[in-house]
Design a protein that fits this description.
Number of strands of chain B: 5
Distance between the termini of chain A: 58 Å
Shape of chain B: globular
Number of helices of chain A: 11
CATH architecture of the largest domain in chain A: 2-Layer Sandwich
Structural class of chain B: alpha+beta
Number of helices of chain B: 5
CATH superfamily of the largest domain in chain B: Beta-grasp domain
Radius of gyration of chain A: 20 Å
CATH class of the largest domain in chain A: Alpha Beta
Strand order of the largest sheet of chain A: 4-5-10-6-7
Helix content of chain B: 25-40%
Radius of gyration of chain B: 16 Å
Largest sheet of chain B: 5 strands, mixed
Largest interface: A-B, 27 and 30 residues
Helix content of chain A: 25-40%
Number of domains of chain A: 3
Number of domains of chain B: 2
Oligomer: heterodimer
CATH topology of the largest domain in chain B: Ubiquitin-like (UB roll)
Structural class of chain A: alpha+beta
Strand order of the largest sheet of chain B: 2-1-5-3-4
Strand content of chain A: 15-25%
Strand content of chain B: 15-25%
Distance between the termini of chain B: 55 Å
CATH topology of the largest domain in chain A: Uridine Diphospho-n-acetylenolpyruvylglucosamine Reductase, domain 3
Number of strands of chain A: 14
């Protein structure tokens, strides 16, 4: 049923399914850019059908048991392996209880059938501006664990996404897991987004708040995505909410800080002015919900 | 590269020769000859190529044929014995939940899966679960009714 058009078929490649991480890393070390890591394939296959990526080897990492890790620990936080699917994450109870922003983000991604295949790390490694996954990771101080034949290192999510489709991984490295730090006690988190008619995000945001009633102990975190080429945590907002002033005034100040920091872009999905407006509306909504004003 | 894989399609064991870059969608249609699995967008958006891989719905245009080695694939044909309809399929017919019929097998499969994990879904849960499928004739309302009424009736029978 192939029509011979590049759009419908995958280019030729050799499929490899290593059983150990060591074998997978050897392959990547040997073939570098010629080998592509494959878990869900949702992003990779789209690029391959367009002939934007034509690897000689497709390395299926789904048989590597350590990449299926999914665990939450009171003090260490949440660890999500590279092959854990979005639906597995949605079914994981700690996500609902402690990492609500991530859960809400995933529940709004694509659709339930695709979520049987798509992975959070796949989303993060795609690193396109409209991808939602990295934004909630920013408020949980997430780190990406990368492995190569030489060893392992952890890269903070803020440094991991360097540009449009540009990440801090070397060609011989695999992102094996993402680690989220536990949120402060009694904190609430949320995720909001606005999509274009084609269902790509034009603004997304994640926010966290603990101890909203007392300024001295109040903790607020805010991150955005899809507004600019790369997602970011807006750390200046965190100081704003530590001041003693009526909450509504603090929210107005915070929104100004965010709008300046984000510097919304114009692209095929939306104009900068529109993004800026939606950013304001959603940020006010998020802060009101978390700070209860 | 080509290799021989073993798969079970609708309960029948098969050996199929596939190329490494072959999609599960192409293999099911062209080599196994199951035509209820349709090709629509080829990029995971329309849901027409959905099959149950080890009982879970996946979009077969984003799955490699080699990945199905040793696994179980079910399509709409496998929901009831040859020449018969499953109870859920009967509700689709009764409610007129189709027009041209092109997308119907995929909606039936995903609904079948939803009801196997969530026997009494709410209307919004069904809407959400079927959101990865597109019906250009717009029979969403009838499909929603078919799934919900079947679930209701089945619950009453069990009581």
């Amino acid at each position: 049923m192939s029509f011979g058009s590049a759009y419908l078929t995958l280019p030729d490649f050799q499929y490899v399914k290593p059983k150990s991480l060591q074998d997978a890393l050897q392959l990547l070390d040997e073939h570098k850019d010629q080998a592509k890591v494959f878990a869900g394939g949702v992003g990779l296959f789209a690029f391959m059908k367009e002939r934007l990526v034509e690897p000689r080897y497709v390395v299926d990492i789904k048989a590597i048991s350590e990449l299926q890790t999914l665990s939450d620990n009171e003090s260490k936080g949440l660890t999500i392996g590279a092959t854990v699917t979005m639906n597995q994450l949605l079914e994981f109870r700690p996500l609902k209880e402690r990492y609500t922003a991530l859960r809400d983000c995933i529940s709004l991604l694509s659709d339930p059938v695709l979520r049987n295949r798509s992975t959070l790390l796949g989303d993060v490694c795609e690193a396109l501006p409209y991808v939602d996954g990295p934004t909630p990771l920013l408020i949980f101080d997430a780190e990406i664990e990368a492995a190569s034949v030489k060893g392992r290192r952890r890269i903070p999510i803020e440094e991991f996404i360097k540009g449009v489709a540009e990440i801090a991984l070397e060609p011989n490295e695999i992102a094996v897991a993402v680690h989220l730090k536990p949120p402060p006690e009694h904190s609430k988190t949320l995720f909001l987004k606005q999509t274009s008619s084609s269902e790509f995000s034009i603004v997304n945001m994640a926010a966290l708040c603990a101890n909203p009633s007392r300024a001295e102990t109040r903790t607020v975190r805010f991150a955005y995505g899809a507004i600019a080429p790369t997602p970011a945590r807006v750390r200046d907002v965190e100081q704003v909410f530590r001041r003693k002033a009526p909450v509504s005034q603090l929210i107005d100040e915070a929104v100004d800080v965010i709008k300046k920091a984000a510097d919304p872009m114009t692209d095929v999905l939306a104009k900068a002015e529109y993004r800026s407006h939606i950013l304001e509306v959603l940020a006010i909504k998020a802060f009101r919900k978390l700070l209860g004003s | 590269m080509a290799q021989l894989i073993k798969i079970k399609v609708n309960g029948v064991d098969r050996k199929v020769e596939v190329k490494d870059n072959e999609l599960l969608l192409d293999m099911i249609r062209d080599k196994v000859g199951v035509k209820s699995v349709k090709a629509g967008c080829w990029r995971g958006e329309c849901g027409l190529c959905t099959v149950l891989l080890d009982e879970k719905p996946v979009k077969s245009c984003l799955v490699l044929a080699v990945e199905a080695d040793g696994r179980d694939v079910k399509t709409a044909e496998g929901l009831a014995p040859e020449g018969q309809l499953s109870p859920l399929q009967k509700f689709f017919v009764e409610k007129g939940a189709m027009q041209c019929g092109f997308c119907t097998p995929s909606f039936v499969l995903t609904s079948h899966y939803l009801l196997s994990v969530n026997p009494n879904p709410s209307e919004s849960e069904v809407r959400e679960y079927l959101s990865g499928h597109i019906c250009r004739c717009g029979t969403y309302k009838q499909m929603l009714e078919a799934v919900l009424e079947y679930a209701r009736e089945r619950a009453q029978l069990k009581r």
